[in-house]
Amino acid sequence: MTNSELRAGDHNARYLYETALGALPTGVIHLSADGAFLGATSAMERMLGHPSGWEPPEGGLLELVHPDDQEVGVAALARLAGNPALEPWDSTTDSADLRVRNADGDYRWLEARGTDLRQDPQVTGYLVSFTDVTSRVEATQYRSQFFRTAAHELRAPVATMLGRLDILEATLEKVKADLPTTVPATVEHLRSSALRMQRLVGDLMDSARMDSGEFNLVRRDNVDLAALITKEVADLAVEAAERNVTITKRVTPGPKVTVDPVRIGQVIANLLSNACRYGKNGGAVMVTADPTRDGWCIRFVDTGIGMDAETVARLGEPLFRSERAKEHAVGTGLGFAVTKGIVEAHGGTLTVESELDRGTTVTVLLPYEAD
Amino acid sequence: MTVSVVICDDDPQIRDMWADWLELLRDIDVVGRAASGEEAISFILEKQPTFAMVDRSMPPGDGITAIRAVRAGGYRGPIVVVSGEDGEGADESDLTDVHYVSKASGPSALATFLDGMGW
User: Fold this and answer.
1) Has residue A358 got a pLDDT over 60?
2) Cα A28 to Cα A115: distance, rounded to the nearest angstrom
């Protein structure tokens, strides 16, 4: 092959390569090892609404990033550059969403992924690819806002129902001797349903907040975990008895934890309730709490219907419920996601091990001092 | 002593529920029902109730602003802040004699407050 044939082959390969890159919905920017702009693909220029041969402003690419997303951009670049104080950037899985200004002055949400090429002396520097994800981000924001508004609007009528039931019950108390037994029983059923709805609305609100990253812990108190577990076990006694499930607990003495007591109470109540609801008739639930080097290790062990590996893997997904779970007990699939979110908001972890028809063990590791 | 209250909530069903609950179960005299922050300020200052109940969020405006205004106007009675969502609201450490009741805990939390006051 002659030199001119080789050059023609190079030219064809380069033409094909650039055409293919230009046809992709993803734009790519090439940066030097010190972060200077070296070039952008035509798809990148098109995405930002610039003509061919565009170059970023003198202050660099970060000038195009929305002020609220500067921190995200700087952190992503620092990780890509291998800042030893930060977690290394994984080019296959890591991405950062940020708003970038286009030629019209409008901001678009772009998902950025980076590859470090510094090890390759032929090319060197970094490749950063950008995909326009504005519609995905806006859909998530809309969904989150919709759930928050819906949950907010549902709270008032549920609170009204519960208050009215109090009034009804107190009024009936005065004439209870003349009432058929169905009347107080009906009031109790109505209250139980209203309370269930109140919990669902709360879970919906929490889930929407977690979805949008706006979930915060309200209080930090020194909490005696043993007392909290004892209280939650006592509160669940009726539900456990109805399902003929025995709850036992063992708490090793240890230090207090700094947590939001209402939220950690909710975690214990949710996990105990799950263990009972998915228990078998005559089954057992064991709660243990032990102080470890890394914090309190709280275990919920049940002898219930258990789950297969696929179900365990999908447990944190909001609204997910397996077909077996739907057959066995009522629920929404929100409680577990919220429970996990609360534990993580405390800097803790929640892990699940399960075996079909044998039972489930949920382990919560809660640091003594939350982050 | 007759215990009186002004109830402030933008939701009429919640307002009426609290009013009926307080009148029927606690024999408390509901002397005013305010539907907005502005009404809350004028009713509380005019009626000078034994205590007031103020919804934290009463669009337009909010209950906390109304509470600051009635305190500045000279009202000294205890104020129950009814909150719809946990954890909302900025710094409220300047407020005096306020008691918090979450909408989710409802009447039982209010009953605890009234019992604590000996009403």
Assistant:
1) yes
2) 11
Between chains, do B107 and A170 touch, taking CB under 8 Å as contact? no
- For A76-108, how does the pLDDT look when each residue is reduced to its tens digit (9 = 90+)? 888 888 888 888 888 888 999 999 999 999 999
Provide the number of structural domains found in chain B.
Answer: 1
Report the gap between the CA of B112 and the closest CA in chain A (Å): 14
The model carries a pTM of: 0.70
Question: Encoding tokens for residue B108?
Answer: 């039982």
Asked if residue A324 lies in contact with residue A276, where contact means CB atoms within 8 angstroms, the answer is no
Within 8 A by CB and 6+ apart from A84, the residues are none
Q: How far apart are CA A25 and CA A136, in angstroms?
A: 14
A151 to chain B: closest CA residue = B85
Give residues 7 to 36 of B whose Cβ lies within 8 Å of A.
11, 13-14, 17-18, 20-21, 24-25
In the DSSP assignment, the letter for residue A260 is -
Output the domain CATH number for residue B46.
3.40.50.2300
pLDDT at A237: 86
For residue B81, give the nearest of B46, B96, A154 by alpha carbon. Answer: B96
Domain extent at residue B49: 4-117
Phi, psi of A185 (to 5 degrees): -65, -40
Q: What distance in Å separates the CA atoms of residue A130 and residue A43, rounded to the nearest whole number?
A: 9
Give dist(CA B70, CA B60) in Å, integer: 17
User: Hey, are the CB atoms on B25 and A166 less than 8 Å from each other?
Assistant: yes
Phi and psi of A195, rounded to 5°? -65, -40
Give the integer Cα–Cα distance in Å for A206 and A201: 9
Q: Report the alpha-carbon angle A77-A212-A147, nearest 5.
A: 160
Does the structure show a pLDDT above 80 at A338? yes
